[in-house]
């Protein structure tokens, strides 16, 4: 039996390495809070810096790459699943409601799902939904995959066709 695997911020590491490798020309932000501030809580804070305290109530995307001509919203998963597609679609809606990105709303917004374990069904669904699937597997991921149970080492064996 394999040893117990401890929690590590592996997907955050995957994301950081991905943006450093492929989006190094962009201004990149990680763990980006998206959406409006909850209106039911706004009445309890004064305007200005106190409003920022409400940020914890908003959802967050793994990363955003800001280029002069476009924005790329990035979600990372070592093992991708269709739930990540729904997250990206929600984050796209929330991006346009985010006060901090008001000045960027006229730029095209692209979505990327970065993953390290192949899942043909999720990749196909990404393509159908206009999301760019990106296979990215740094060397350290393999040692993590070896800690997983055999059924966790692969994605879905179903293909969508």
Word description of this protein:
- The chain is of the alpha/beta class and 161 residues long.
- It has one domain: Trna Endonuclease, Chain: A, domain 1.
- It is 29% helix and 21% strand.
- The chain contains 5 helices and 5 strands.
- The protein has a 5-stranded mixed beta sheet with strand order 1-2-3-4-5, sandwiched between helices.
- Helix 3 (82-95) links the parallel strand 3 (71-77) and strand 4.
- The protein is globular.
Helix content: 25-40%
**Rounded average pLDDT:** 80
Which CATH architecture would you pick?
3-Layer(aba) Sandwich
Just give the CATH class. Answer: Alpha Beta
What is the tally of beta strands? 5
Give me the secondary-structure category.
alpha/beta
The protein's oligomeric status is single chain
Q: What overall form do the CA principal axes indicate?
A: globular
* Spans where pLDDT lies below 50 across 5 or more residues: none
Order of helices and strands: HEHEEHEHEH
Main sheet record: 5 strands, mixed
Radius of gyration: 18 Å
Annotation field: number of helices: 5
Percent strand: 15-25%
Widest sheet: strand ordering:
1-2-3-4-5
The CATH topology label is Trna Endonuclease, Chain: A, domain 1
Distance between the termini: 37 Å
**Overall structural domain count:** 1
């Amino acid at each position: 039996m394999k040893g117990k695997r401890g929690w590590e911020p592996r997907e955050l590491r995957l994301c950081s390495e991905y943006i450093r490798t492929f989006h190094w020309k962009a201004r990149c932000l990680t763990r980006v809070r998206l959406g409006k501030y909850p209106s039911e809580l706004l009445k309890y804070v004064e305007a200005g810096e106190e409003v920022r305290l409400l940020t914890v109530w908003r959802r967050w995307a793994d990363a955003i790459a800001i280029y002069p001509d476009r924005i790329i919203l990035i979600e990372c998963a070592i093992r991708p699943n269709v739930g990540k597609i729904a997250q990206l679609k929600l984050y796209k809606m929330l991006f346009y409601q985010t006060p901090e990105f008001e000045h960027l709303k006229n730029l095209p917004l692209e979505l990327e799902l970065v993953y390290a374990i192949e899942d043909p069904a999720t990749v196909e669904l990404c393509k159908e939904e206009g999301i760019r699937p990106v296979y990215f597997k740094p060397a350290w991921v393999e040692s993590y995959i070896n800690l997983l149970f055999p059924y966790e080492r692969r994605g879905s064996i179903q293909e969508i066709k």
